[in-house]
Amino acid sequence: xxxxxxxxxxxxxxxxxxxxxxxxxxxxxxxxxxxxxxxxxxxxxxxxxxxxxxxxxxxxxxxxxxxxxxxxxxxxxxxxxxxxxxxxxxxxxxxxxxxxxxxxxxxxxxxxxxxxxxxxxxxxxxxxxxxxxxxxxxxxxxxxxxxxxxxxxxxxxxxxxxxxxxxxxxxxxxxxxxxxxxxxxxxxxxxxxxxxxxxxxxxxxxxxxxxxxxxxxxxxxxxxxxxxxxxxxxxxxxxxxxxxxxxxxxxxxxxxxxxxxxxxxxxxxxxxxxxxxxxxxxxxxxxxxxxxx
Length: 293
Ligand SMILES: [Mn+2]
Prior knowledge:
Layout (H helix, E strand, L loop, with lengths): L2 E4 L6 H14 L6 E4 L10 H15 L2 E2 L3 H10 L12 H4 L4 H9 L4 E6 L2 E6 L9 H16 L3 H9 L6 H11 L2 E2 L5 E2 L10 H7 L4 E5 L8 E3 L2 E3 L14 E5 L17 E5 L4 H15 L1
Parallel strand pairs: 1-2, 2-3, 5-8, 8-10
Antiparallel strand pairs: 1-11, 4-5, 6-7, 9-10, 11-12
Helix pairs in contact: 3-5, 6-8
Bound molecules: manganese (II) ion.
């Protein structure tokens, strides 16, 4: 069955609906098998609507979705570990009558998934993986993190998320998978943009010449990333207006190719332009509030 990988949605439920219709049209009237890279919520206008839609797609259509840093942030806010930022727009989830049920649902999402397209294995992560990891190590680490996230009640989840990531290998894996953009020569990772091109996590990953491909999101300011072995799909649907247009992007790989991650693969990106400059609106509202303060 045709797979479609979808980048960071971040509360853009109208664009998600429009993109799904485009994907249906592109696949002969049938919805493809959906794989979502995480960051379903925050910054955009309708986090709760996106969660409801994705949950329905997972339960009824077999869609796959992993946790992004904005889901972790939402869990942390819901558990009282993090104060809501003025730039957050996911309060609709935490103020919903079934908010605790959403926290329980989110904590059960996987943190990395693997599969096969054509002649190639692939991994889907939200932000990054370590350059040296093979698929087996990624899977072992992801399953260990997921067991920790799901274990016990919400108090146990709070204790896990409150543990500094430097002090716990599972916390370190979770943070890296959901936040990392750069890796230095000593292997230390950071969520910051790399200081040189060499230090982008995927540059160091590519040098290892792994036999699997990676689909990821998280890096809107980098934008669409199409190179052999990699597809970065965060095209900043919520960042419309920040010097570039915002899009929600889906990748429809060639399911019969020996290497579907080979390039070029023209015509395989389906994009839905953002209806509004969502995040710019949030920032402008904040600067307006500052002026009146
Ligand atoms: Mn992200």
